[in-house]
Design brief:
Helix content is about 25%, strand content about 25%. The protein is an alpha/beta fold and about 375 residues long. A 4-stranded mixed sheet has the order 1-7-6-5, covered by helices on one side. It has a 4-stranded mixed sheet with strand order 4-3-2-17. The structure holds 6-aminohexanamide. The site of 6-aminohexanamide has 14 residues, from helix 3.
């Protein structure tokens, strides 16, 4: 596998939108007992349901440790799910996997961002993280894709969304956080995104969802549903800690033109809950120095925006919440040509993210 010293943009590559056709989706099998309760068994059932839901639409590859291979293989009993053995620190391939980029000839390469477990020693979520920082490289090697490595430039795939037409949304809370790239200015970060993803316009939302332990990843708060249209997690309750965040995001989205000069259409998605882990759920997580502690007092950052677009489908989380049906109806209305499949998301949320965070789409080679 080649590691290139140029940039995707210079070589004619760009990050396609998530709705562009995929060749497959990647996942990683969860087993880390200081993040997933009860040794990861409930999370494994939740990941299995997500993998099988995706596998109805496109192939899935699940990275799994040697120790969990037999168990994962037995549970992931679906003809469209492949397993590969990879050592990882945890199971968030949106953030540890490559960001795939494509060119007009239909070639696929990958950007391998530096990963520091969402903040390194300044608020990061576990240590060590070097195996997770190797995941993108290993995936690209398996796929025979050339690699661009942004050595020292920290970024997670969940902190960006693109429309495939030159625009990207992100949050200041994450990308300008001192625990990611403190030596880089906003302009320098924009420039790196422009060079590596071939985008022209960065739309900066101030914050992500309240209590998101990634420091406000955009994929838990706001996403594109098509060029010029976004879906924003929303509350009308002024008492909600999310209220000022939603208002601030709406102010930016309503007053910004995208790379094509369009005024954005903003769709609203209700926020479930408030959701909290139970005492029993928290007690099932192993204590470990440097890992995120769990408490029933902490509001969980549950969000229906944390869904994955696959070939012909939308795989979205449900929470056994009164808002589940409305969320499904909104998604089905926004994606009339896709089949919306709602999968239980609570166990994934207990670990700190949701379906988009545990998946990484690989675009299909396509001539443009
Ligand atoms: O949501 C994500 N993209 C990652 C969350 C990591 C949580 C670790 N406890």
């Amino acid at each position: 596998m080649t590691t290139l010293t140029s940039t995707p943009r210079a070589d004619g590559f760009q990050m396609p939108a998530e709705w562009a056709p995929h060749s497959q989706t990647w996942m990683v099998w969860p087993e880390r007992p200081d993040n997933w309760r009860l040794g990861g068994k409930p999370a494994q059932a939740a990941f299995t349901a997500v993998a099988k839901a995706i596998a109805e639409f496109e192939p899935v590859t699940v990275c799994v440790s040697a120790g969990q291979y037999d168990n994962a293989r037995a549970r992931l009993d679906h003809g469209n799910i492949r397993l590969v053995e990879i050592t990882t620190d945890d199971a968030w391939v949106r953030d540890t996997g490559p960001t795939f980029v494509t060119n007009a000839k239909g070639e696929v390469r990958g950007v391998d961002w530096t990963f520091n477990a969402w903040g390194g020693f300044d608020g990061g979520l576990y240590w060590p993280w070097q195996r997770d920082d190797q995941v993108a490289r290993k995936i690209l090697e398996i796929e025979g894709c050339a690699r661009y490595r942004t050595e020292g430039f920290v970024l997670e795939g969940g902190s960006i969304h693109v429309d495939g037409e030159g625009s990207l949304i992100t949050t200041e809370e994450c990308l300008l956080n001192r625990n990611r790239n403190p030596e880089l200015s906003r302009q320098q970060i924009e420039s790196l995104l422009q060079q590596h993803l071939a985008i022209d316009t960065v739309i900066w939302l101030p914050d992500g969802l309240f209590n998101d332990e990634t420091d406000g990843h955009v994929d838990n708060f706001c996403c594109y549903v098509r060029p010029g249209e976004v879906l924003l997690a929303w509350t009308d309750d002024p008492q909600s800690p999310n209220y000022p965040r939603c208002q601030a995001a709406m102010a930016v989205l309503s007053n910004t033109r995208d790379a094509k000069g369009r005024q954005l259409i903003v769709h609203k998605m209700p926020i479930p809950g408030p959701l909290h882990a139970t005492v029993e759920e928290c007690a099932g997580v192993d204590a470990a120095e440097g890992s995120q502690e769990r408490s029933p007092e902490v509001r969980l950052a549950g969000s229906y925006v944390n869904f994955l677009i696959v070939n012909g489908g939308i795989i979205a989380p449900k929470f056994d919440d009164p808002m589940d049906a409305e969320a499904e109806a909104i998604l089905q209305q926004l994606f009339p040509k896709h089949r919306v499949v709602m999968v239980p998301g609570r166990e994934i949320l207990l670990g700190g993210g949701n379906i988009h965070c545990i998946t990484q789409q690989q675009p299909a080679p396509q001539r443009r």
